[in-house]
Amino acid sequence: MEQCLSTRGKEILIKAVAQAVPTYSMSCFKLPKGLCQHLEGLIQSFWWGSKEGKRKTCWVAWDDLIKPKYMGGLRFKNMEMFNLALLARQAWRVLQDSESLSARVLKAAYFPHCDLLEAELGSSPSKIWQSILEGKEVLSHWLIRRIGDGETTRIWDMNWLPRDGWLRPVPCNRTGRHVWVSHLIDSSTCTWNQQMLTAFLTPPDQDVICNMPLSTQRQSDFGHGIMRRAGLFLMLVHIRERSAAFLESIPGRSDVGREEKEWAQLWQVKVPSKIKIFLWRLA
């Protein structure tokens, strides 16, 4: 059967079957790294072909195959990082739907006195709990606290600055880990305390904080929300970048923009898909 398939047919089978079938298990459990590598090895063998159990030469590295098509790859999945993305979605569901049965069971068993982002592994964790914590580590880079009275948000250890890049303040006078945002707020006027901001924070951070409105109703700090503009699924992009440092670290690529434009033109050519794959292999 393998010999009867075109390269386009193989690409479809890989994406629709080989990389889709494990999705349910990967949504619940962190698969061993060796298993993920084994799955990727099977996919490579199928893609490049094999004869009598012997693999043919892999002309393109796996780190190149998982690149987006506009960067010269075929958008195959890095199985380990895709696993983390799915687990991050599960962690997000626990945070968002805290009244669901699964969230209540997990909270009662593993973090009865805090929220998920402050939860620890514990003494006898289940495999599911270990896996959710793996997803939580990824998710924590994408969440931000919304400030109300500042009583439950630590200045240095939580994301709470609404800006691109680093979501925590850079301390110029770090006094301790457990310092709360409420120390920066004048409780009598419900405004930021300029004297405290100047004493503890850098000028760029002060500017960001001063532009953050405070509630006059003395509300508690809001739950965690997605900071990035494109929402939760942009995490997948972040994880793909983590999976291989190819986006900006490949040497000798000073003309990245022109090269990406050329790849985009290749995939837009109005010819059968198998011809596009053939041209890709020639390139």
Automatic annotation (TrEMBL):
This is Reverse transcriptase zinc-binding domain-containing protein. PANTHER family: REVERSE TRANSCRIPTASE DOMAIN-CONTAINING PROTEIN, REVERSE TRANSCRIPTASE ZINC-BINDING DOMAIN-CONTAINING PROTEIN-RELATED-RELATED.
